[in-house]
Amino acid sequence: MEMENETQQSKFRRICVFCGSSQGKKSSYQDAAIELGRELVVCKKLWFSRSEISIIFQLFLMHIQEEEKKGTILLWNPITSSYSKFGTFSVQIISFLSLTFFLLVLKKSLILRLVSILLQVSRNIDLVYGGGSIGLMGLVSQAVHDGGRHVIGVIPKTLMPRELTGETVGEVKAVADMHQRKAEMAKHSDAFIALPGGYGTLEELLEVITWAQLGIHDKPVGLLNVDGYYNSLLSFIDKAVEEGFISPSARQIIVSAPTAKELVKKLEVPCHESVASKLSWETEQFGYSKTYDLSR
Ligand SMILES: CC(C)=CCNc1ncnc2c1ncn2[C@@H]1O[C@H](COP(=O)(O)O)[C@@H](O)[C@H]1O
Fold it and tell me: What is the pLDDT of residue 5?
């Protein structure tokens, strides 16, 4: 039996999340931020690998053999209407039959459903974000931190006073300004996700899309379209494609989904090809002497 996709372990080590410094009016935005945080930490495992099945049955067999040695396993004999002890041969027959039953008779979907209820596996993705505990930023960072993953907040020195950003969980990276913040956030991440947000979120999102278009990085960019919040932005982008301002291949840079689970799953699949040749991000234009290579 072919077990595709044997593991759900993520290919991403760190994801950068852009989101509102406000919580938004609907509770669904806040729920989505928490759900995204949890999704980075853990996901339901949907598959057993062959080696795992074999281990489970070995353990099952060992358990039955132990019980059989103790003589605690009794078999109901309908002919004599009495219980008799379970022999080693019976143990082997039962183990063989149950294994065959599991692998050949039970439907794959049923096995998967059972397994997805029973098992959880870590995604183990760390978070990079704008720092602070205000708005959706606070909710997503707290969820990742609570899940035991590393959180890196990148904050410009001028925003560091707590009354502006609130208490930050995890590691704080102080940077000179907003430009350096975006470069640092991008450099330390393997993918980007935008939750609902305002000007700041839009600016950060559009910048990483533009960088992908220019070939500065080829990291996936996801839009968490909670309750259709970004529908009008997506329509506008489609209009720009129609009118010839955005190329159809550059349109593919944005991957969107209504839930965190679907979005992270979509991002795991290689999505956009490098739209332009790879460049190194020269930040001299912003007054830095250092060259940032965003490809990590
Ligand atoms: C001075 C002031 C109003 C500070 C508010 N406090 C903030 N602290 C940290 N990052 C922020 C703050 N406001 C906006 N940002 C940045 O802009 C994004 C959110 O902006 P917005 O709420 O979508 O538009 C965040 O990802 C973050 O990178």
Answer: 41
Q: What is the ipTM of this complex?
A: 0.92
Ligand 1: nearest atom to the Cα of 199: 24
Dihedral (CA of 68, 72, 76, 82) sign: positive
How far does residue 161's CA lie from ligand 1's centre (Å)? Answer: 13
Residue closest via CA to ligand 1's atom 16 equals 200
Q: How far is the C-alpha of 267 from the C-alpha of 135, rounded, in Å? A: 25
| CA-nearest residue, atom 20 of ligand 1 | 200
- C-alpha–C-alpha distance, residues 78 and 61, integer Å: 24
Residue positions counted in the chain: 296
Smallest CA-to-CA distance from 91 within 67, 119, 120 is with 67
Of residues 126, 128, 293, the one with CA closest to residue 217 = 293
The secondary structure of 162-211 as a DSSP string is HHHH-PPPSEEEEESSHHHHHHHHHHT-SEEEE-S--HHHHHHHHHHHHH
Nearest protein CA to atom 12 of ligand 1, as residue: 21
Q: How far is the CA of 155 from the centre of ligand 1 (A)?
A: 10
Residues β-bridged to residue 84: 75
Report the predicted TM-score, pTM, of the whole model to 2 decimal places.
0.73
Q: What are the φ/ψ torsions at residue 18 (nearest 5 degrees)? A: -100, 135
